[in-house]
Amino acid sequence: MAPIDSEGTTTVGQSEEPRTGRRKAARYVVPVAVMGVAAATIGLVPALADSGDPDLPKVTAAQLLEKMAESDVEQLSGTVKISTDLGLPDLGGLESGLMSGMSGAPGAGGDEDGSAADPSAKLTELVTGTHTLRVAADGPDRQKLSLLENAAEYSLIHDGKDVWGYDSRSNEVYHSTVPEASGQPEKDVPATPKDFADQALKAVDDTTSVTVDGTAQVAGRDAYRLVIEPRQEGSTVGAISIAVDAETGTPLKFTLTPSSGGAAVVDAGFTQVSFAKPDASTFDFTPPKGAKVTEGDEPAGAPGHGAQEDGASERGRKGEAGGLAKEADGLKTVGEGWNTIATFDTGGEGGLPTEAAGGDLGGFLGSFGDQVKGDFGSGTVFKTRLVNALITDDGKVYAGAVTKDALVKAADAAQ
After folding, report:
1. Among 109, 160, 229, 367, which residue's beta carbon has the most beta carbons within 10 A?
2. CA 345, CA 120: separation in Å to the nearest integer?
3. What are phi and psi of 37, to 5 degrees?
């Protein structure tokens, strides 16, 4: 097998620590749908690694999963390239603004009291396009992630109890502290291969086929190639490929390919990596002279650690026997495994919003969707290459990494 490099394949997949539910339900339409499917469960298929390049001892899928689970790597540094192609229409940058607005964070949605350095809004840029990141970690108390931009850089630093976000373009700083109860900062957006892999490997059941499909080299490291595929029909996920470092068990590259074919939806892989201890100065940060500093009123995001809304989100991801719904703060999930669908009632009729500054927002958004009808009534399905969402005319939302027909079927079943 030819070496896997960050140019040739594509990746996806994250969040573990519970946090308090202080955000509106709208924030979770896309995140929960992605988590509910991309973090779908995995059956332990005892397939052996094929011979390939490099020549490594054969392992079963179960053995490789165990190696990943037992990995104790806490120190590393490197460069990650991440590309995301959801197939969103070109809205001239509006799509990034909409995603930021959903975050509910200070500075999102044009809040003039917010900060350009707020990580909850800044890291949503990773949901589209191609980006280069520098990452470093030294145990659970020190991590750094830097997003390299044209003639600018955004850095997110966790050092002890402090979390700093710095945007060099605007010379703004965002500061928050890690809550004592959790001891860990939170981050909503996956950014490294491990982030994606953790999300995809959260649970285990028989809805998924897992095999070891040969070996590869990533960033100069020997790796096994773990392949995850849904057994269920109706998912937009075709396959997930994770290159696992043969020595440490660390995910080096994560690729998610859609069932519709073509290029990967998400590709995140190291182009350079070292497992040596980073220099202590890597995590030092002092606000630059003249920078605007905003103090967060709740814990900010930080690199290397994810968060769930609560345990119900985790339970809902697996679904419930017979496809029954589980409710979490007004949000429900129906189905199971890769066919999990998140649903909630907006509480208002009329479907899409009809007014916006400068024109008819409903008509504008509706032009990107497909009109559908069923026993539930009528509505609009918005499609990407991974996540689809149905908004009914009576104000209900159904979203998941499933086909349009699966959304309509779920809406009909809810009647």
Report:
1. 229
2. 25
3. -115, -50
**Identity of the amino acid at 364:** F
Tell me which residue range forms the domain holding 76.
17-34+41-305
Has this prediction a pTM greater than 0.90?
no
From residue 236, give the alpha-carbon distance in Å to each of 33, 77, 174, 267: 11, 33, 37, 16
**Residues facing residue 292 across a β-bridge:** 172
Share of the chain above pLDDT 70, in %: 65
Q: Do residues 330 and 288 both lie within one domain? A: no
Per the listing, tokens 């519709």 go with 260
Question: Can you spell out the DSSP letters for 104-139?
Answer: --TTGGG-TTS-TT-HHHHGGGGGSEEEEEEEEEES
Helices (H) and strands (E) in the chain, counts: 8, 21
CA 176 to chain centre: 22
* Start-to-end C-alpha separation, the chain: 50
Instruction: Please check whether residues 264 and 400 belong to one and the same domain.
Output: no
Residue in the block written with tokens 């290397």 = 304
Same domain, residue pair 241 and 138: yes
User: Checking DSSP bridges between strand 326-328 and strand 129-138, what pairing results, if any?
Assistant: unpaired
Residue that finishes a domain, picked among 305, 340, 361:
305
Question: Position of tokens 């809550």?
Answer: 179
Using the 3D structure, point to which of 288, 305, 322 is the last residue of a domain. Answer: 305
Distances (CA, A) of 389 to 37, 273, 395, 408: 13, 37, 12, 10
In whole angstroms, give the CA distance from residue 404 to residue 387.
10
| 69 CB-side CA count, 13 A | 11
Instruction: Tell me how far apart the alpha carbons of residues 340 and 205 are, in angstroms, rounded to a whole number.
Output: 14
User: pLDDT by residue (tens digit) across 267-313?
Assistant: 999 999 999 999 999 999 999 999 999 998 654 444 544 333 344 33
User: Is the pLDDT assigned to residue 246 strictly greater than 70?
Assistant: yes
Return the higher-pLDDT residue of 331 and 4: 331
| Angle, CA 160 vertex, CA 156 and CA 161 arms, to 5° | 85
Query: At 309, which amino acid appears?
Result: E
Question: Residue 299: which of 120, 170, 126 has the closest Cα?
Answer: 120
Assess whether pLDDT exceeds 90 at residue 13.
Answer: no
Regarding whether 282 and 247 lie in a shared domain, the answer is yes
C-alpha 253/C-alpha 196 separation (Å) is 9
